[in-house]
Amino acid sequence: MAVRRLFVPKEVFYGWGAVESLRQWPGKRAFLVTDKIMSSSGHAEKVLKPLRESGYQVQMFDEVEPEPSHATIRRSADRALEFQPDVILGLGGGSCMDAGKLTWLFYENPQLKEMELPQLREEARRYPLHKKASYVAIPSTSGTGSECTPVAVVGLHTEKMPIKVIILNLSMFPDVAISDAQFPSTMPPSITADTGLDALVHALECYITNRPSDFVDALAIKAFQTIYRWLPKSVHNGQDKEARERVHTAATMAGIAISNGTLGLIHDMAHQLGSAFHIAHGRSCSLMLDAGLLFYLDRAGERFIEAAEIIGLRPKDARDAAAKLLAALRDLRKDIGIPITMQQAGVKEKDFMDLLEVMATNTRTLPLRPLKETQEQVKDLFMKSWRGETL
Ligand SMILES: [Fe+2]
User: Fold this and answer.
1) How far is the CA of 374 from the centre of ligand 1 (A)?
2) Which of 16, 281, 315, 347 is deepest in the core (most CB within 10 A)?
3) What is the mean pLDDT of each run of 10 residues along the chain (391 residues)?
């Protein structure tokens, strides 16, 4: 067996009230990166209070917007450089946790702050972190898994459409992930559904596309099973504490799986579709789910069978497993109010055709690794999704 490496945070605290564990984290000056929703809802205070009470001086930057701009992250880093924290925290959805990571990266390496995004994308991976501060990620949604990944996304507006630039640095892996379900427990049903579906797709897409790994497979398949079972309860009754906790913990498990395994074409294409039509990420993944998964059926038949079986289906063979799995996932999405087709998501045919070429080009060139798939293959998958093709 080849030698493999598993990236995990130094510590993961999970369960209701896990944020109180911050009292044990060593440091004197804490800088919290978050957004106005977290600061005005009282969630930020749930983080700051245990820190203050254990003797920290604290400062907060709460100006992170969805898909934060480079300018916002530079401002946050400037504030951190003035304050000189020894702990940086990111609280919120993926945008806040990513903005926190990049604040940390710039704080530790101020020369990176001056680079424009294309150069930063190339250079960022070479710079070390952990010299001046540790990083604590606290998700307020049960979805992105950013609390357990070494990547951050920055929004960039181009002439044709906004795109997402992915910054990778293997040492940008959070020291601590705090998966405390009291933060997502106030999400409305539509955001619970959208973010939960993202987490489900992380788990399933990773399980189907990843090269076999006992560690990653175990996290991915268990996360898939848990989210499949508990997400509907979490959407239909946000007060269901057990459902909230199960989905939240599973989303973090899926995050560890994807940072050690792979995602595939569903995510590659969903990023571009979402940017082009301003569709929330979980919904974009839903629109790409059938075509994106089926692309792997020939080479990962056994995985389809295992994924189907883990949610209680009894397939005859790989093709039957894929058909049953996709049908079950259609039922799940209908149940939680997530669109399955482009038409349901309000995408107009002319707009889709106008942007098809650029979406396919960006799918192939913008991810961390250029795709092996050809322009025609990617366009074909977008078209299959447009037509709603499935098994
Ligand atoms: Fe995702």
Assistant:
1) 23
2) 281
3) 89 96 95 98 98 98 93 97 98 97 98 92 94 98 95 78 83 96 97 98 96 94 98 98 98 96 93 91 97 96 98 98 98 98 96 96 75 92 95 87
